[in-house]
Amino acid sequence: MEIAPDAQRILDAGERTRRGERAAVAAADLAGRDITAVAMTWVDTSGITRTKAVPVARLEHAAAWGVGMSPVFDVFLLDDSIVSGRHAGGPTGDLRLHPDLDRLVPMAALPGWAWAPVERFDQDGAEHPLDARGLLRREIARMAAKGWSVRAAFEIEWAVSDGDDGEEDFTPACNGPAYGMTRISEVSGYLRDLLKALAATGVSVDQIHPEYAEGQLELSVSAEDPLGAADTAVLVRETIRAVSFEHGLAASFSPKVMADSVGNGGHVHLSLWKEDAAEGPVNAMAGGSGPAGMTPEGEAFAAGVLERLPALLAVGAPSVASYLRLIPSHWAGAFACWGRENREAALRFITGAMGERAQAANLEVKCFDAAANPYLALAGLLAAGRAGIEAKARLPEPVEIDPAGMDSKERSARGITPLPSSLAETVAAFEADPVLGEAFGEAVIDTVATVRRGEIALFEDATPEEIAATTRWRH
């Protein structure tokens, strides 16, 4: 259903018929593979993956007519309590969940099940204004209208614990040295089965390795279009969760699993591309005369992201627990600056190895974490980058050291500021940002801010240990 970037998508009779016919073919194929049901997922404003499922025999009807869902899920908090904003909340109303058949896939980690992300429409067939996936689709279209495309990928960090996730405590399932081979030996069967399940599900894994904190692991996937990247992030996490359960383990994607330990990041990788008639797709992050080899447009895209990081944290570091993680000298990117291969900068520029830079050069947003709704996070990043291109923005001087090692006068002289240290600060920046306000629209801005303030109130008197314990198993 190709439409203009700013047009509203509508499911008319012809589109419903087309979707139903296509789903009938897919359902027959799934049934032939002994698939019983399809889990249809969306990610709520708090970053939690919610679902409704249908038997395979009902997939055709679901594709054409949708499955009912209350709009109230847009204002669920992470503890399943509900707040109310100007555009969402209360017991009335209904939406329809329509599976995106382009991403329909059997889940190797859940035998007998398939998975598809959903698009949310109202009962009249109009796209729901709070549908984060639809918002990202529109931002991709707005970039394309200017001749640009973006390739993206999320790093997936998680901590694995012995026992099921009904327990409050966290007991690391591997205890070897950070990044040590010992950890792979401790959980080799688990990691083997995870990689096999992801390969069977069609996910292209670039690498997997032990991380810094006890029980912490990280997995990187190949870059793809932003909508595909967000979908893949959801699919990978649910595959990790399922394989963990199968091995008697529990996976936590929380920004802060333990109050006194390193948290899980949700780093986002981005590169800007333009089609060249002679050369094909060309990466604007390489081959230029700008900082670190960026082209002017690549630099402008990066500068647009950097300028709006304080506001973007409302969708990229969206939990109170996020600010227990976002602290200096922990590779979390706590300062609003950029640097070539600087893991303490909020925006790390990666050149790639000599010989493959034209393909590999990209930005890494290090201040985002695993509580983010990936669709909202990428929509915000694309809007910020697009605004940078339109303004022909330029980057400040790169930072080559840990900014925490500078004194405050030096940081001030170089324009290096700390990112917000609380969710309340970033919500205020988010609501005041004109670029995000225009891109997201009033309904999304108000709903995100309402949910964030609800979580702030939820944890108003909580200790870091209580925040970590409450958040640990929710994402």
From TrEMBL:
What are the recorded GO MF terms, alphabetically? ATP binding; glutamine synthetase activity
Segments forming domain GS catalytic? 132-475
Q: What are the residue boundaries of the GS beta-grasp domain, all occurrences included? A: 33-125
User: Which domain of life does the UniProt lineage start with?
Assistant: Bacteria
Q: Write the record's keywords in alphabetical order, separated by commas.
A: ATP-binding, Ligase, Nucleotide-binding
What GO biological process terms are annotated to this protein in UniProt? Answer: glutamine biosynthetic process
Q: Cross-referenced InterPro entries, in alphabetical order?
A: Gln_synt_N (IPR008147), Gln_synt_N_sf (IPR036651), Gln_synth/guanido_kin_cat_dom (IPR014746), Gln_synth_cat_dom (IPR008146)
The family this protein is said to belong to = Belongs to the glutamine synthetase family.
- Protein name as annotated: Glutamine synthetase
Species, as recorded: Actinomadura barringtoniae
The lineage, from the top, is:
Bacteria, Bacillati, Actinomycetota, Actinomycetes, Streptosporangiales
